[in-house]
Amino acid sequence: MTDTALPNLADFRSVLIVKPSSLGDIVHTLPAVHAIKHAHPHLRIRWVANTEWTPLLQGAPWLDEVIAFPRKSFRGLTAIFKAARWARATLPGQTQPELVLDFQGLLRSAVLSRASRARPILGLSDSREGARLMHDHVIPVDASAHAVDRYLTLPRALGLTIDADHLSFPLAPGTLPSDWPQRDDLIVLHPWSRGAGKSLSPEALQTLCDALAPHPVVLVGMSDDKSRPTGAHITDFSHRTSLAELIACLRHARWVISVDSGPMHIAAAINDNTLGLHTWSNPRKVGPYNPKAWVWKAGRISHRQDFTDQEVLTESELTPEAARQIGGWVLGRL
């Protein structure tokens, strides 16, 4: 790490973005990177992302190159060395000089950044696993802030003026499944999450679907639970969409209802009619950033920024009765 002045973006021809994962965090990084491209359109923007997340970025016209990082290929005690070898062979760019922005802030991302041979490397102060030791400049951030705000700190430090109320989340367009229902009034429901205590219970899910009847509901997402809600108005697309297809499904929905998850952040980025369901997580810190999106938390529905300090820390189960009320609220806004 150095104490010298921060670089001037005008002096560079390319920027390497190191943000391999995860789904939600890549979405949260989009406004910061897009702001750089918008302010300095001469810059070639290259983005390193885990192979499974590249559909979030591929096809976005403002990105010049999306580099698939085969993270799952590097296992065991030698994984970091294999990743470094891959990076040395893959990441050095043809357009120089190039600046590296390590938004991931972990040992692996710092190693990838160093192996690219581009300098300087900028990281954030909440980096972990010793990553800061490999950064040439460390930008102070508020670790308690929402991820979008943390990531915006970096381009602001480089002199950009960014209005947080008018951000762009320019995800790839995606492609609808060939058998997707051809109608514009669908409620897309994503009821499952890998996070403990975030998924809807089968009882709450059935009650929510019943409350939305007879309006058409499409289930998306993945779950090990084989049970599914029943109803003539329900179409089950669970385990049937690729990530690129999921983006398009969420984009074209009349409303999206989603538990706290990566798909919730995709939905909020591209669809104002998104309702995020938060049982124990703090919506101020991890909720849908879009100020027009809605949040269920502590038994009521409002915008993320409107919950009290006590409410955001409340842990509450989403009961069948709460699900019934949520369904009625959504129907009232169709």
TrEMBL record:
The keyword Cell division does not apply. SUPFAM superfamilies: UDP-Glycosyltransferase/glycogen phosphorylase. One of its GO terms (molecular function) is ADP-heptose-lipopolysaccharide heptosyltransferase activity. It comes from the Bacteria. One of its GO terms (biological process) is lipopolysaccharide core region biosynthetic process. Keywords: Glycosyltransferase, Transferase. InterPro entries: Glyco_trans_9, LPS_LOS_Heptosyltrfase. PANTHER family: LIPOPOLYSACCHARIDE 1,2-N-ACETYLGLUCOSAMINETRANSFERASE-RELATED, TETRAACYLDISACCHARIDE 4'-KINASE-RELATED. This is Lipopolysaccharide heptosyltransferase I. It comes from Brevifollis gellanilyticus. The gene is rfaF.
